[in-house]
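Worked example

This section walks through a single chain of length 222. The input is the sequence exactly as stored; nothing has been trimmed or padded.
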Amino acid sequence: MAGYEPFAHLKSDNVIVVSPGGNILWTCDPESIQQFSKRSHDFVKPVEMMGMLNLYGPTVTATEGDESRTYRKTAAPSFNDRTHGAAWSESLKRSLSMLQGWEEMKAPIEQLNEHVARLTLQVISFVCFDRPMDWLSATGLEVNPPKGRQMTYSEAISSMVANISTLFIVPPPVLKYSPISAHKEAMLSYIEWQTYMEEMRDETSASLQANHSRKDLSLLGA
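Given that input, the structure is written out below as tokens.
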């Protein structure tokens, strides 16, 4: 079951799953969600259960208290009118590109969620990393990987997102030695995407030091 089906089956918008390891509340009730969001001091996140989110290091989502406030204070200035505007304009541009791709396919769109996920990835790539991805590059029809790489940029980020569930559940040390092909693919995408991120970080840092300006930078440089 997916979406609202579990709640409809149980005839409730709030469901508590009880187990020896603790209780988990599943809800789709807007009022409850609003309370949880506004009263963060009363509803503290179980950070001990969220370590799986720290694939490449500590994240805002997997922290609480002073540590979380420090991360949010550091990241907040980057989310401004300029980045919001960039996200909006890029969303429009990539949506038109997607529609054009549909017209060229001349066939029914059977997996709409996959196309929307690809569009979202394109917007994130441009706004966060200043790396534009057209509709073709997002489907893997791109130039060969750079020297010493096994994946292109678009292949690395797309594969990493496609394998995100595996990366969350199975620790990298296990993936590294696993004979399962899906695990090998997940580990490869994990390594390749980490390398691309480190390169972008270094390039942005060098650009800031050389130009001493944050104008027109991606979210990574903001």
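What to look for: The radius of gyration is 20 Å.
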